[in-house]
Design goal:
Blueprint: H1 9-21, H2 34-38, H3 42-54, E1 63-68, E2 74-79, H4 82-103
Length: about 120
């Protein structure tokens, strides 16, 4: 589904930084030189994305991949386009304080998969 929303350049730059920091340890697949290509002119790359978001942004199709696990099991994963990953980081960043507030009582629980940093600690 296509949608439009207003985005500050600084928000996009931070979302890009977070997407880049996920590489290579939090990605199922890493395309060689993808980040290098985007950073040839990162300012323009982000401004193009900002313009697309101001219009009608249509996410790209994702690709299914199978990730090996222990005992010969496979975990399904999806490979998403770098621009969609940046937009995802942007949306999570905007919603983070609400997410953290909703999950606050579970932080520190040994059964919680991930412990979230308090919103003030986010940068």
């Amino acid at each position: 589904m296509a949608t439009a929303f207003s985005v500050e350049y600084s928000e996009l730059k931070l979302a890009y930084k977070r997407a880049k920091e996920d590489r290579p340890n939090r990605c199922f697949v890493e395309y060689p030189y993808l980040i290098d290509w985007a950073e040839i002119d990162l300012t323009q790359w982000l401004k193009d994305l900002q313009e697309r978001l101001a219009g009608w942004y249509q996410p790209h199709s994702s690709r299914l991949c199978w990730i090996p696990k222990a005992n010969s099991l496979l975990r399904p994963g999806n490979i998403i386009h770098l621009k969609d990953e940046v937009v995802y980081n942007l949306i999570v960043s905007r919603l983070y304080k609400r997410i953290w507030t909703a999950l606050r009582e579970y932080q520190g629980d040994p059964d919680a998969a991930y412990i979230l940093a308090e919103p003030e600690e986010q940068n």
